[in-house]
C-alpha cells in the first residue's frame, strides 16, 4: 500500500503546451508583432520552437538563466526572419510574465488532487524553473495540495538523477517501497523512478506505444484512473 504520491508537473498535472501557446500568443499581441512586414505567427512559432529547445537543453551546461534562454531564443528567431532583434529582451520579459501567470490544467487534475489531498502526502518533482512552477501552481489554485516541491533549479539536481528523488522521499518520511511516482516522460520520469527504485505510474493520455522492454508499474490514460487504481491497491 502506498503512503505517499509524487507527481511530475508539465503534461502530467499542468498543460504546458496550452500555457506556452497562449503565452506566446499574448506576447505577440502585446508587442504587435503582427505589424512587422511579412510577419506570420505560425512561421514565427515554427522557427522559435527548435531554437528555444536548443538553448533550453544547453542551459545547465552553459549556465544560462531562463531570461537568457528566452532572450537568445527571441533574438535568433527575429534575426532568422529578417527583423530587428532589439525587441528580444522586452519580448522575453513579457513572455515570462505571461507564462508564470498562466495555468492550464490537464483533464482531471483538480478532481484527482482533491480526492487524494488529506489521504496521502503529495509532492512534486519537476525539471522546471522554480519561479514558473510555483507561480503557475498558485495561479491554478493547486499549491495547497502539495507538502513538498522539488524543482530542479532549486535543488541543483534533476530527473532522471536519483538524488532529486532521494530528497523527496526523505522529506516525505516514508520508505521508498511506499512511494508512487506519476509522470508522462519515459526518459525523465520512468528512468528516474527506476534509478530511485520506486514504483512508477506512466501517464499516457495519447495511448502511445510503449517498448516492451519498458515496464512501468502501472499505465493510465486519464488521471481519473489513478484514484481508482490507488483504491484498488489499498484494498488488496
Summarize the structure.
With 236 residues, the chain is an alpha/beta fold. It has helices at 16-30, 41-62, 66-80, 88-100, 109-116, 130-139, 152-155, 162-172, 186-196, 224-235, and strands at 4-7, 122-126, 148-151, 179-183, 199-203, 218-220.
Features:
236 residues, alpha/beta, Rossmann fold, DNA polymerase, domain 1, 2 domains, 6-stranded parallel β-sheet, 10 helices, 6 strands
Question: Describe it for me?
Answer:
- By secondary structure, the chain is of the alpha/beta class.
- It folds into two domains: 4-15 and 104-235, Rossmann fold (3-Layer(aba) Sandwich); 16-100, Orthogonal Bundle (DNA polymerase, domain 1), CATH 1.10.150.
- 51% of the residues lie in helices and 11% in strands.
- The chain has helices at 16-30, 41-62, 66-80, 88-100, 109-116, 130-139, 152-155, 162-172, 186-196, 224-235; strands at 4-7, 122-126, 148-151, 179-183, 199-203, 218-220.
- Strands 3-2-1-4-5-6 form a six-stranded parallel β-sheet, sandwiched between helices.
- α9 (186-196) links the parallel β4 and β5 (199-203).
- The chain is elongated and about 65 Å long.
Amino acid at each position: 500500500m502506498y503512503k505517499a504520491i509524487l507527481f511530475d508537473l508539465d503534461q502530467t498535472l499542468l498543460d504546458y503546451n496550452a500555457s506556452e501557446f497562449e503565452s506566446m500568443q499574448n506576447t505577440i499581441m502585446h508587442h504587435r508583432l503582427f505589424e512587422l512586414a511579412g510577419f506570420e505567427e505560425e512561421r514565427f512559432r515554427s522557427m522559435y520552437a527548435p531554437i528555444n529547445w536548443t538553448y533550453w537543453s544547453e542551459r545547465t551546461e552553459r549556465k544560462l538563466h531562463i531570461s537568457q534562454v528566452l532572450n537568445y531564443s527571441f533574438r535568433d528567431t527575429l534575426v532568422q526572419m529578417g527583423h530587428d532583434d532589439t525587441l528580444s529582451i522586452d519580448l522575453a520579459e513579457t513572455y515570462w510574465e505571461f507564462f508564470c501567470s498562466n495555468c492550464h490544467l490537464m483533464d482531471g487534475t483538480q478532481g484527482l488532487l482533491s480526492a487524494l489531498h488529506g489521504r496521502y502526502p503529495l509532492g512534486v518533482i519537476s525539471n522546471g524553473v522554480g519561479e514558473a512552477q510555483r507561480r503557475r501552481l498558485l495561479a491554478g489554485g493547486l499549491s495547497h495540495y502539495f507538502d513538498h516541491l522539488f524543482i530542479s533549479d532549486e535543488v541543483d539536481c534533476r530527473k532522471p538523477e536519483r538524488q532529486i528523488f532521494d530528497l523527496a522521499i526523505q522529506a516525505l518520511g516514508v520508505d521508498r517501497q511506499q512511494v508512487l511516482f506519476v509522470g508522462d516522460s519515459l526518459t525523465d520520469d520512468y528512468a528516474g523512478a527506476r534509478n530511485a527504485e520506486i514504483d512508477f505510474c506512466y501517464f499516457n493520455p495519447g495511448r502511445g506505444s510503449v517498448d516492451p522492454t519498458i515496464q512501468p508499474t502501472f499505465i493510465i490514460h486519464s488521471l481519473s484512473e489513478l484514484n481508482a487504481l490507488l483504491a484498488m491497491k489499498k484494498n488488496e
